[in-house]
Specification:
The complex is a heterodimer of chains A (82) and B (773). With 82 residues, chain A is mainly alpha-helical. Chain A has four helices and no strands. The longest helix of chain A has 15 residues, at 41-55. Chain B has 773 residues and is an alpha/beta fold. Chain B is 35% helix and 19% strand. Chain B is globular and about 75 Å long. The chains are: A mainly alpha (82), B alpha/beta (773). The interface between A and B is medium-sized, with 17 and 20 residues.
Chain lengths: 82, 773
């Protein structure tokens, strides 16, 4: 799980071009959207592509993303369960 | 001034031609179904595909290679020919008319066919050459040339509002007396690129689309082309034709909220509809029908409805989206729906909003089945594009009794059409507000945001000179910079520098020229399609691939709700943007405009350009932004005039030069010469024709060649007038050009920027000193 979380953090930084952040800056439980990292709906779509490309998980409804992409932890949980 | 519509032509999924389109609308018959002609993994998605193969379209259009391979071009030729026949335009009328096309896809269908192969191997000459049809301008060029020899052509590219914006430029040009007849509209074919692009945004409905329905689930894409013929009153009288309607009002605004989402209260849509009604001098209650943008996405429909309810409250006029019939024809939708609106006006009906079942909100029921309605007075036609680019056109019925009045067709005053290139300031009968250049900034292969090039120009011996990147730290936070591609960072740097130097917080308009647009993002998206196929593609790349991403980005940063347009017509992209700004300042529509030109190149496209543009020497990138204003205070110089001439007789260009240069000994001509005979010969022929001597300059040997080069020439011209100095390395020299002589730079009065493109368009810009000499 630790490995997955570290890998996810690096992948999120890469696909969303969060150049000024390091994995250590991202709190696993902190919200990614809104007041957290301030991501928006297009970032959510990018995260859907990340799940598909890197983990073979396909979400067909963007609304599902809302729960899954709450935090790095919730994404990692979702990946482990699928 | 009244703008009359005297002709129309259309092809879409609901028919080839006006008659078939009318019958489909009266029968409420939809053209949306499975995709048959575009080769895609998503063929199951419903779309409004035109029911002909490329070879069938080529037969209908009467053309062969290369047009036969370019679906956008084929559709455009078919609709354009019908519009011209319907307006009864003769050869001589077309020679004096403008053709303004809207497209964004351009030749992408051909590019995506070759792309995977070109990533492996660039030795296939045919594939390299066919990638040269990728840009928007070449599509317009190929369409225009099959319709006749127009006096002026250009291309507006603002994604889904492109055709509406083409119509708006045409109307402004007629209002300002630049031209009497304009053929304007748009053409767009389906492509895998944008089908997959919209798919990454997860806004394509897998079922038939249901605009304004509570359970709407997105767009069905479509394709097609339509053009309308706009005409001045004097020309209508001269030709004795009966108008189909009038374009009574129009407006373009920017939502300035997000590249792909509209603001909750539909601010941009609200402003475009209210401004258009203000221009038409009509009250909301006088609108009898709204042909809504109504794409069927959750976001568009609720925000468009919010804007409508802000204007009309609970008593909305009849409204419908006709996209369930045609599909969303993206860049062509503005003119396709303009033709549908004109048909409704003329034939007394309101087309249905198919697929609708239940309302989004109380009192928001669209017209559910075709409604007979004689006596429609005014129709609003909405077209909204990426970047919150919102356009509204108002088509109205008019009293045409004046046609039988004393100004008959035989009125000798207006027997001959007005010649595009012969209109000078002295011919204009009304007040024209002068234009000034307030500030200007550049990024290029020379040091960015400064003028080191004057003393110490960097010289390049390679074939490709990439831009030197400016720092954007002072302009944007890292969190904002993360989505900006190179061209967008350069745009931010030059735009914000120009605004700062002009002490201007908020321009009235943002107008951009870009020949290739956001090429890096487009290429990455194409590369991903080659690697991953038609899935797992990245939405950010598509969202920021459209040409008007550039203009929209600045509008969003500034929260600028003003006019926002983008021209993408190869080497005259900047010149078109400048003409638009000047036209609107001249007639008092706007006071200031941020006008820019931005082009980037990738290593692959540098190779393609070298292949398709043998007249280029040093392929480069540049970004130039200027504040053009009606305000003379603190201005650098006056922007006195601009003319853009499509394939003119060289003597016409020479006579403009002679008219504009009252004192050659106190003037300079900045040419686009680059030392390559293929490029320089037309300039030499032209200068041979003018029999005066003046200072002749060049700049492309240090700034390189790209579609935005003329903006760099403009930059150089402004700096020369500002400094009253001409760097010696810019001088062509009398051994190269016999006309070249030294002039007293301290007494410099006029600078002419002369720009010639590979498809033989000339643009001539005149800058004048405002110092007391």
């Amino acid at each position: 799980m630790e490995n997955l979380i570290d890998k996810l953090k690096s992948q999120i930084i890469e696909v969303l071009n969060l150049e000024d952040l390091t994995p250590a800056d991202i709190d696993v439980d902190a919200p990614l959207f809104g007041e957290g990292l301030g991501l928006d709906s297009i970032d959510a779509l990018e995260l859907i592509v990340l799940l598909e490309r890197e983990y073979g998980i396909k979400l067909s409804n963007p609304a599902e993303g809302k729960e899954i992409f709450k935090s790095v932890k919730s994404i990692a949980d979702y990946i482990s369960n699928h | 001034m009244e703008i009359f519509i005297t002709g129309y032509g259309i092809i879409s999924a609901i028919g080839n031609g006006v008659d078939e389109t009318l019958n489909s609308l009266l029968d409420s018959s939809s053209g949306v179904g499975p995709i048959r002609h575009l080769l895609t993994d998503h063929a199951h998605l419903p779309a409004g595909e035109v029911k002909f193969s490329n070879s069938e379209l080529a037969t209908l259009a009467g053309v062969g290679y290369p047009e036969s391979e370019l679906r956008t071009v084929l559709l455009g030729i078919i609709a354009g020919k019908e519009a011209i026949a319907s307006a009864r335009l003769q050869k001589v009328d077309i020679e004096h008319a403008a053709f303004i096309n809207g497209t964004t896809v351009g030749g992408m269908d051909l590019s995506e066919k070759h792309f995977a192969k070109l990533l492996q191997d660039r030795s296939d000459d045919i594939a390299m050459a066919e990638l040269g049809y990728n840009d928007c301008g070449v599509s317009s060029r190929l369409i225009a040339d099959r319709l006749g020899k127009f006096g002026f052509i250009t291309t507006s590219s603002t994604a889904c509002s492109s055709a509406a914006n083409a119509i708006i430029l045409g109307a402004n040009m007629i209002s300002n007396g630049l031209v009497d007849i304009v053929v304007a509209g748009g053409s767009e074919s389906l492509s895998k690129f944008h089908l997959n692009g919209f798919n990454t945004l997860m806004i394509l409905d897998k079922e038939k689309s249901r605009p304004f329905d509570e359970l709407r689930a997105g767009i069905n894409l479509g394709e097609g082309a339509a053009y309308i013929v706009l005409e001045s009153k004097r020309s209508v009288l001269r030709r004795g034709v009966t108008p189909l309607g009038i374009l009574r009002g129009y407006a373009n605004t920017c939502d300035a909220f997000h590249q792909t989402a509209s603001s909750d209260n539909g601010e941009g849509a609200y402003l475009s509809m209210t401004e258009a009604m203000d221009m038409a001098a009509i009250k909301p209650a006088e609108i009898d029908y709204i042909n809504a943008h109504g794409t069927g996405t959750p976001n568009n429909d609720i925000t468009e409805l919010a804007a409508m309810q802000r204007i009309w409250g609970q008593a909305l006029p009849h409204f419908s989206s006709t996209k369930p019939f045609t599909g969303h024809t993206t860049s062509a939708s503005g003119s396709i729906e303009a033709v549908i609106s004109l048909l409704a006006l003329r034939h007394g009906f309101i087309p249905a909003n198919a697929g609708w079942v239940s309302p989004i909100a109380p009192d928001s029921t669209p017209v559910r089945s075709m409604l007979r309605h004689n006596g429609l007075r005014n129709i609003i036609c909405n077209s909204f594009g990426f970047g919150g680019n919102d356009s509204t056109l108002i088509f109205s019925n008019a009293d045409y009794r004046f046609l039988n009045s004393e100004y008959g067709a035989d009125n000798p005053v207006c027997r001959t059409p007005r010649k595009v290139c012969n209109i000078s300031e002295t011919e204009t009968e009304w007040i024209q507000y002068p234009c000034y250049v307030q500030s200007i900034a550049q990024v290029s292969c020379q040091s960015p945001l400064c003028d080191d090039w004057m003393e110490n120009p960097a010289l390049y011996s390679d074939k490709f000179a990439p831009a030197i990147e400016p720092s954007v730290k002072e302009f944007v936070k890292p969190s904002e910079a993360r989505r900006l591609s190179r061209i967008l960072k350069r745009t931010v740097a030059t735009s914000l520098t120009a605004l700062k130097e002009a002490y201007l917080d908020m321009p009235d308009a943002i107008i951009t020229g870009t020949g290739m647009g956001c090429l890096e993002n487009s290429e990455k998206f194409l590369t991903d399609m080659a690697v991953y196929g038609e899935s797992k593609l990245k939405p950010t790349l598509f969202m920021q691939s459209t040409h008007n991403t550039i203009s929209s980005l600045i509008a969003i940063m500034l929260k600028c709700h003003g006019y926002n347009n983008t021209y993408s017509h190869r080497g005259i992209s900047f010149d078109s943007a400048l003409l638009d700004a000047m036209t609107q300042i001249n007639c008092g529509k706007i006071m200031s405009a941020l006008v820019g030109a931005h082009d980037e190149v990738t290593p692959l496209f540098a190779d393609i350009m070298a292949h398709t543009h043998p007249e280029f020497n040093l392929i480069s990138e540049n970004s130039v932004s200027a504040v053009i204003s009606g305000n003379a205070d603190n201005a650098i110089c006056r922007l006195a005039d601009i003319k853009i001439l499509n394939r003119p007789v060289l003597t016409d260009v020479a006579s403009i030069l002679k008219n504009w240069m009252s004192d050659p000994s106190r003037s300079a001509i900045i040419t686009g010469m680059n030392g390559n005979p293929l490029n320089d010969t037309p300039y030499k022929h032209l200068l041979d024709l003018v029999n005066f001597k003046t200072r002749v300059l060049k700049f492309r040997h240090i700034f390189g060649d790209n579609y935005s080069s003329s903006a760099m020439g403009f930059y150089v011209g402004v700096r020369i007038l500002e400094n009253s100095a001409i760097p010696a390395h810019l001088v062509a020299g009398s051994e190269e050009i016999a006309n070249d002589i030294p002039v007293d730079t301290g007494m410099l009065k006029d600078v002419i920027i002369l720009n010639h493109t590979e498809d033989d368009i000339w643009s001539i810009i005149k800058l004048t000193s405002i110092r007391n000499l």
